[in-house]
What does this fold into?
Amino acid sequence: MKKALAAVFTVFTVTLCVLLRGGLIASIAASVPIAPARAEAADDSLEQQIVAKEREGLDALKAGDLTLFGNLTADDAVFVDSRGPAGKAQVMSNVAGFRITEYTMADVKYLRISRDSGLISYKITEKGVSHGKEFAAQVYVSSIWAKRGGKWACLFSQETEAR
It folds into this structure.
């Protein structure tokens, strides 16, 4: 059952990438394959880089550094939550009144998309202040990160309240 759900999630994610990024899958198919032994090391390194960038974005929200958060978010990014999809401008407007005071990431999963991109999913337990009101939440997050012009950017993020 878990493998079937993982397969459905993977198909959904790849389909979403095609819709959001247009030629991303074509560029992946055209990329030069990495030898299997090097592929594992490359995957580990890529996963570590992407998780570090995700933490950097969360730490920016914790510090109230919206400039850094904005620099980590692609101009054409799409973020999805219970209110639906939003572009970068809307996301930046939403986080202006949002600050994380503490968070933990758990059960991080990684899926390589290409040599320079990958998806992570995890459960975040967080506390903070949103538009003047304190909150505590547990949320499942999926994020797609890609290196563009030598710089990491979050292209997509989706949040689902944990029950």
